[in-house]
Amino acid sequence: MLDEIRGLLPELLAENGVPGAAVAVDVGGEVAEAAAGVLNTATGVEATVDSLFQIGSITKVLTATLVMQLVHEGKVDLDAQVRTYLPGFRPATVRQLMCHVAGFEGDVFTDTGKGDDCLAAYVGLLGEVPQIFEPGEMFSYNNAGFCVLGRIVEVVRGRPFDACMRDHLFTPLGMTHAAGDPYEAILHRTAVGHLGGGTPTTVWAMARSNAPAGSMLAMTARDLLAFARAHLADDRFQAMLQPQVTLPDIGWGTAWGLGWELYDLPGGLVFGHDGNTIGQSAILRVDPARDLAVAILTNGGSPRPLMKEIAGRLMELPEEPVPDPARPVDAARCAGTYVSSTSRTTVSADGQGRLWLEYVPLGITAELDEEPYRTELLAWRGDALIPAEPGRGPVAFVGDDGTGRARFLHTGRADVRSAGRIAP
Prior knowledge:
- The chain has helices spanning 2-16, 59-72, 94-98, 118-125, 143-157, 161-170, 182-185, 221-233, 303-312, 331-334, 363-367, and strands spanning 20-27, 30-37, 53-54, 178-179, 194-195, 199-200, 218-219, 245-246, 255-256, 261-265, 268-277, 280-287, 292-298, 336-339, 343-349, 355-361, 373-381, 384-387, 395-398, 408-410, 414-417.
- By secondary structure, it is α+β, with helices and mostly antiparallel strands.
- An eight-stranded antiparallel beta sheet has the order 2-1-13-12-11-10-9-8, with helices on both faces.
- Helix 1 packs antiparallel against helix 9, helix 2 runs parallel beside helix 5 (143-157) and helix 4 (118-125) crosses helix 5.
- The chain is globular and about 60 Å long.
């Protein structure tokens, strides 16, 4: 099968405007690899199986694994309040951080410098961010929460987060081509992200203070599978696959475990995580029943169709959502403006009863040149609708603001109806 994928990869790159990609497949501990394209369109350096790509938010599962090691050592209690380890922190348990239910504003990307104190300084700022819902109430993807977990690792281990990552994961797992920062990455053959039109990014990594959430970790697809293999082989990590919270109907997984996204498919459980940084995207999927894992790393273009094509040849994937034109849309419940620190989304009905979504990036997303867009919303199922614009996943209208209107617009992150936030 990998020979087929190896032959198909250059064609998929060209079709989707992806400069370069690396793929690795692990079946029963045997790893096969492929790579194609270039790491940087400005230099033409060829992508190889030894090339490093950023893995973005897949880093969160590595951070969760560092925490679970501490749990097994008896040094961290999942159900203890975070303030047990970080005095003065707002109400939330370690478990709630690990499954994205802590409820505070999660898209906080403040750069607190490059020193070893950056995580401590970052966590100190989180007391100022809004609490969107009560801890444990619901799922809302939370980048900041994983930075807090990284800080717990630092405090308990007494060492900087990146040193803990190297000493407790990279070295024992034989991950020889993994780089925790640009200074390590430059020692390897390393991909550069690309934005629209295949233009290389001018910034390689985001802030060090967001490293536990996925701002800069890079590695080969092979090393990423070494990490996945540890989760297949080590019974200590099986608890991470237990569902902690059911996800809203947004075309993601069925539930979230302790770090992992869980897919309850007809053929059985598949787990994994996705990652995105500036101009780079990655996916990791694991099918434990077949003892199979696949990692796909890319550096620009439109990688999702490529990833779906390759992963779909290797394992079962969720069905793509299809609009249901016969289902009515409750415009009165959905209409309104929903906000977060990184976006403002307005949902409105026109004279023909059609529902429209208008998205405007704010803060760091605007700074990173994310484009505003407007699209019609089409009925799917329940309170979940599908944007008509290709490439955009379902959105769900969740909760009740007390007047019969949705309290949240959920895209993975719960954006609250304006004027619906609660105090920090």
